[in-house]
Amino acid sequence: MTRPIAVVTGASSGIGRATARTLATEGFEVVCAARRTDRIEALAAEIDGRAVTCDVTKSEDVAALAEAAGERIAVLVANAGGALGTDHIADADFEDWRIMFDTNVIGSAATIQACLPALCAGRGVIVTVGSTAGLVSYEGAAGYCGAKAAEHAMMMSLRLELVEQPVRVCEVLPGLVESDEFSLVRFRGDTDKAAKVYAGVRNPLTQEDVASCIAFAATCPEHVNIDQLVVRPRVQAAAHKLLREDA
Ligand code: NAP
Question: Residue 198 catalytic?
Fold first, then answer.
């Protein structure tokens, strides 16, 4: 029996990898996309899915991903992204900003655009992985907050634009998630700085928690659109209210 197709970008690590695993257990054939081929090939073998090497900032890669996914897509999880640096605007490195906007905003938009005909044919669901950083800004993150706010605005436009199509438009917006590499990438491999992000926080969200939210949004009945699903650890009452036990 053929399984419905789910495409997950950023599937080589963290939330994307956990989502690919969760959607596979829900009965989807998952097309796992990211830049690191070895990782997505291993994942695809584990979950009986497919691997497509794809940098979402390269239009030819995105076109090839859509082509490989086929004529009907049931779920697209535009998850590839992340943060770079914690500079204040006074000394920001705008090259980091360009990468953040290229990946989180234009990369997600381009992936959605390329997959849209197949999403319409498959009466599919689009889920972006935004962030609470796109809803409330914090200092040292103007580039990341700006990118996630732009991704959020884009999804609100998209929902209006697609109302005549049988396609749902959902955003999952997590707070603090202790994922595989988010903070390591942000701090360019500095493990001490990355560990401090979660220091003293009892039970930050796991990537599996977020994957469950994505799978929920992706598997609701066809008439149910989860516009926004904001999810935080219980100890994070708001962006700036994070309980640290040793603080
Ligand atoms: P992660 O472990 O660093 O995973 C990021 C994924 O994105 C990797 O698979 C990476 O794969 C992929 N990626 C990055 N640039 C890419 C590109 N140009 N083309 C294709 N894939 C690319 O971090 P994560 O926490 O799972 O992050 C996933 C998403 O959740 C991001 O959009 C992030 O902004 C969002 N988020 C994270 C948190 C958090 O606290 N962790 C909170 C809210 C939202 P390759 O390097 O192999 O390409």
Answer: no
